[in-house]
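Data's thin. Show one?
=====
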Amino acid sequence: MPAYEYRCLDCKRRFEIFLSYEEYGQREIFCSHCDSANVQRRLSRIRIAKSEDGRLDDLASDFSDPAALAGLEDDPRALGRMMRKMSREMGEEMPPEFDEVVDRLEKGQSPEEIEKAIPDLGGDDGGLGDDFDL
């Protein structure tokens, strides 16, 4: 059964309800928080499923030109944008430290400044681990 998202117009809270396709549009919906019928359907985010090969092909086409990678070591903002794009394309959950590092890069902070500001980033080894190097 699909999950549908709603927002209560009385208490302003969001809630989710599971309905069969037959029930949708036929059954009256009530807020799960205040029991009001004054609710509005919210459109959920959609995801487009890509195969791993499709994601890798997209990344390869973005970075196949060496000029696309040129200067990344001198431009923290571009490095941050590239890292965020790669993360999205791979579709894997990244640790919270990743988002903090990318946020800092996108604000223009250098990898060296980030390492000094967050010396214990990534655990006991003082780095971000084997999968993540600045």
